[in-house]
Amino acid sequence: MDTAVTAKKKWWAGGYSPFNVNYGKLMMWYFLISDAFTFGALLISYGTIRFSSTSWPDPNEVFKSFPGAGHANLPLMFVSLMTFILIMSSVTMVLAVHAGHHRDKKAVAKWMIFTIIGGIAFLSCQAWEWTHLYHEGAWWGRNPFTNVDGTVATTNFTNFFFTITGFHGLHVTSGVIINIIILINVLKGTYEQRGHYEMVEKVGLYWHFVDLVWVFVFTCFYLL
Amino acid sequence: MSNEATLHSQQEVMHGAGAHDHHDHGHHHESFISKYVFSMDHKMIAKQFLITGIIWAIIGAFFSVLFRLQLGYPDATFPWLESILGHWAKGGRISPEAYYALVTMHGTILVFFVLTAGLSGTFSNLLIPLQVGARDMASPFMNCLSYWFFFLASLVMMASLFVQTGPASGGWTMYPPLSALGDASIGSKIGVDLWLTSMALFVVSQLLGGLNYISTILNMRAKGMSMTKMPLTIWSFFFTAVLGVLSFPVLLSGFILLLMDRHAGTSFYLSDIFIAGKALANEGGSAILYQHLFWFLGHPEVYIIILPAMGMVSEVLAVSSRKPIFGYLAMVGSLFAICILAFLVWAHHMFVTGLNPFLGAFFVLLTLLIAVPSAIKVFNWLTTIWKGNINFTPASLFSIGFVSTFISGGLTGIWLGNSSIDIHLHDTYFVIAHFHIVMGVSAFFGMFAGIYHWFPKMYGRFMNNTLGYIHFWVTLVGAYCIFWPMHYEGMAGMPRRYFDYSTWTSFNQFSGLNQFISFVVILVFAVQLLFVFNFFYSIFKGRKMTTQNPFKATTLEWTTPIHGIHGNWPGEIPEVHRWAYDYSKDGRDFIPQTEPLGPNESGH
């Protein structure tokens, strides 16, 4: 490694990218910061409304069902599974990016397929959870759950839950669609011809971001 | 050390290489559609933004003429109003509903469609690639999309003017509950939905544009163009884009929640409301929450409007006074400070909403802090032209006018930034006067300066100077005549947004003044039409540009051919060797940025 030369190089003097990345990756990073502000605003709105309310429903009571388990009391089990699936899909995405660095087309395709399956599995889980809650009487503007202290809750618990998890679900959906497009390009050999798999890296950034957002959504709605 | 080596050990990313090289010798065949409509050339996209902005400006300004007729002549009837507005102006008198629709659309159009998209959309697109030395934007495709999303937003907003129940009319801030409940007023019906849709499309357009501006400035600078060699225009566009990318998404979140409140039965912003004597079920929401979300964008938005104007004025003042800009780094530093503070002052729009006075104190402090970088900039502009050999072109006059209005409008901001004075002055004509002078008139002056100065770069011809001088003097004097008296009205407690003041005896003393203001508004509007005529006439018939660098400026855009080509430079991109402000140096009038430093010369 030629440390002396690289250290002296003037990265900001023009003619180079100062971060040594393509504009596309730079844009993706800035887009993610922007999108973080979108989610930040929604979650902070949720926080202000929740903390200005005297009481709030208990997530352990609301989210206690598991498909096929009847009326068994399994608080947060299902959402833990969902979270596990989504995080595993991030792992497979890392492996896809890694394989891309080695220009291993087959491995990239394989791990992209796993990532897409993970994404679809997460969305299916979310669909089940929404349907289940809907049948319990919960929806935008309708809240069957009572507060922890036994008082009647406002509808804002379900309003925020469906809006924010829905907005996140839309992000996952678009992520899955983008992943499928990238997978098709991988299989067509577009990136092999281009000589690098940077597109996989870029959608990987988006996918990890969507994952990270879920961690916050999960914390705010299910744990707190 | 080893860390840095690892970071950069991969192949270096150089912007000249790869995707953009095939644009080089821009003579490949282009159809009408790809050249003028779905163009991916930043120079054409800039013109698209500008002309769309001009059309919107005419509409938005015409609306102000209409509602000023009502304010100046509340008892008069104008039969021609009925022929253009129909039942909105029965008997030639604007109805209260129409009045509120007009003021709402005036604000929305001018703030977003003209001074955001029309101003920074035009000049960021035109100048960023030309002044940093790039063949085009980082992503020409996204740039094209950015314009067409703006166009779609424009179409939807335009459509809302023609629906049966009229456009949104709850004020340009679209506060709930008025905007959230369709039954609240006639202007809260489908007009608000169209308004929200249009604005969501607008946010997308801003995001696509902003990401492009940022990555072009960071990644695509020509060899030698370090960040501190960039003209101040580029710095201002950079900070503008950062502000937009970080604040518009918060507005979008606010709009999502508002749309839900309108159509999904939620109560994010609604609680304990009666409409027509009937109690609504909505409970637990907060109307103030919307105001926080709105002003978290809303305040940065005023800097999104003013920063590009500041950048262009800095450039035009240096060029036309043949002097280097005074305090270049201080200028960059104050832009940066304004950009940071922009995010920390939003609650000064909410001092009287019941905001905790203790919290208000911090927002007062942070608001007043903005006076520091603003004052630095003003002093630097004044010292830049001080003892300069000024060419009084229309562009330089508008730049000087900008400094004037920025001072007089900025000083009243110090009044309004104090929460205790705000108790008296909030929602009065004092506020109207303040923000129209400091961000409306000033931003327009910066925009006019930019248009007169870079018109030759856009169209290869000059605009007519005589018409330019008439335009400047009437607009400057007119703007002060319109807004200066409003300070007095505001201090006397005259509230904004009222339809008719004649029923209050305390405001009767202002009826003559209101007439005077309305008269000047009509005059100034007519002169803007003169400018529009000058603009379009000069595109086809203006004096032709015969040299590449008519203003003898140092910056890179004047090293490109008179008739712009796709790819900007016919050959290699020039290398940059010095900063952008070597005017009157070593006995020379100006030294272009492309000229290497002499043996006895030190860089700036």
Task: Walk me through the structure.
Chain A: It is found in: Cell membrane. Chain A: GO terms for molecular function: cytochrome-c oxidase activity. Chain A: The chain crosses the membrane at residues 29-49, 76-99, 111-130, 160-184, 205-223. Chain A: It is a multi-pass membrane protein. Chain A: Residues 1-224 form the Heme-copper oxidase subunit III family profile domain. The complex is a heterodimer of chains A (224) and B (604). Chain A is mainly alpha-helical and 224 residues long. Chain A has one domain (23-223): Up-down Bundle (Four Helix Bundle (Hemerythrin (Met), subunit A)). Chain A contains eight helices and no strands. Chain A has helices at residues 3-8, 23-51, 59-62, 77-101, 105-135, 156-188, 190-194, 198-223. Mean pLDDT of chain A is 92; it is low at 1-5. Chain B is mostly helical and 604 residues long. Among the domains of chain B are: 35-230, Cytochrome c oxidase-like, subunit I domain (Cytochrome C Oxidase, Chain A, Up-down Bundle), CATH 1.20.210.10; 547-604, no CATH class. Helix content of chain B is 61%, strand content 2%. Chain B is built from 17 helices and four strands. Chain B has helices at 2-7, 32-37, 42-72, 79-85, 96-132, 140-160, 190-219, 232-263, 287-321, 328-341, 357-369, 371-385, 394-416, 419-425, 429-459, 465-491, 511-541; strands at 274-275, 278-279, 583-585, 588-590. In chain B, the strands form two sheets. Chain B has a two-stranded antiparallel sheet. A two-stranded antiparallel ribbon of chain B has the order 3-4. In chain B, helix 6 packs antiparallel against helix 7, helix 7 runs antiparallel to helix 8 (232-263) and helix 12 packs antiparallel against helix 13 (394-416). The model of chain B is unreliable at 1-10 and 16-26 (pLDDT under 50). At the A-B interface, helix 1, helix 2 and helix 6 of A face helix 1, helix 7, helix 8 and helix 9 of B.
Question: Can you describe this structure in just a few lines?
Answer:
Chain A is about 70% helix and about 0% strand. Chain A has about 220 residues and is mostly helical.
